[in-house]
């Protein structure tokens, strides 16, 4: 089974450009994933800390 790093590397070498929408919180990350993107970009904070905007 391929590692996460190997799968991510393969996305960069596919036949189409890799588009990484940026998620700012857990809700937007879920929406990006549900939209079918193979990977999600995140900022260091707040997404990585698990906080949501407005809280």
Automatic annotation (TrEMBL):
It holds the Pfam family PEP_mutase. Keywords: Pyruvate. It comes from the Bacteria. The keyword Glycosyltransferase does not apply. GO terms for molecular function: catalytic activity. This is Phosphoenolpyruvate phosphomutase-like protein. It comes from Kribbella steppae.
